[in-house]
Amino acid sequence: MRLLFGIGFILAGLAFLFYPQWEKKVYEQKQQQLIDAFELLASENEYLATEKAAQTHTAQTAVPTAMLEGAIGVIRIPKIDLEMMIFAGANEAVLSKGAGMIEPEKEFGKNNVGLAGHRGATRGKQFNRLDELVPNDAIEIQTKTANYEFIVMDTFVVDRNQVEVLADQREPLLTLVTCTPVGAKNPTKRLIVQARLSSKS
């Protein structure tokens, strides 16, 4: 009996230890599936040039296409190894899938576009490592029609009701928003990363 109890205790400990990494791996695989499907759809005019390609496209994206409802693009931050989908809106359903575009009517490269993201407790998941960014770090945005590179100007913390950080400025900006500190219950502070447009292609 003691042996069984001991084995059960060890197994529970191992599950507790490895669950965060397993959860992160599953999340990353889901993100990659969404990104692959998005990139296929973004170039579908060229991809569907032949009947055979069209059949392959349908087979490969039948499931992901439904998951891509509201998809706007992809955000990549090389320094912190971040790559995740961007969806319209910033409600819980959206943030469970990726980053949320707080004001979907705004345009990258024209307005101050705000992107919100959860800050999971697992290192590297979602916006968890956003606090590691410093001025001159690069942030890449890919949409169906263009690619943008933004350069970080500043990082700072505000109260959650200080929405003026999302107001349009004289130049196009990208504003990343996430809760801080990590793991806080009902946090009232927001970590802000603001970046200016560097290039568009």
TrEMBL record:
The keyword Hydrolase applies. The keyword Hydrolase applies. GO terms for molecular function: hydrolase activity. Keywords: Hydrolase. The active site is at 118 (proton donor/acceptor), 179 (acyl-thioester intermediate). InterPro entries: Sortase, Sortase_D_2, Sortase_dom-sf. NCBIfam families: sortase_fam (TIGR01076). This is Class D sortase. It comes from Brevibacillus gelatini.
